[in-house]
Design brief:
globular, alpha+beta, DUF2255 family protein, seven-stranded antiparallel sheet, Pnp Oxidase, Chain A, about 30% helix, UCP028498
Length: about 120
Amino acid sequence: MATWTSDELTTIGDAEELGLASRRDDGTLRRPVTMWVVRVGDDLYVRSMNGRSGAWYRGTQTRREGRVSAGGVEADVTFADAGRALDDEIDEVYRTKYRRHGANIIGGVVNPDARAATIRLVPER
């Protein structure tokens, strides 16, 4: 399994926003969606504020492949299930990184529906 380089982890993990484009059935990329991204250890995560019913989240489930860009780094990725073991840690990173946006806005990504729609971004090499 491919892993992020240290520079990629730092650059993407520190970026305010990430652009995510999922692949359609025919392999073409959808229009990128802008979202928040967090780093936990050597992994990068995104969450859907609208849970599993969010349009961009549903798009990631088609081929489970896409492309992300943040801080000048662009990478093809696989969308992996994040599991639930790190929910609390991911919540805390979101709260810390994006605290200036206030609890009401952060609440959109630290709730049960968003937790259920957490994706780990795995680089394709």
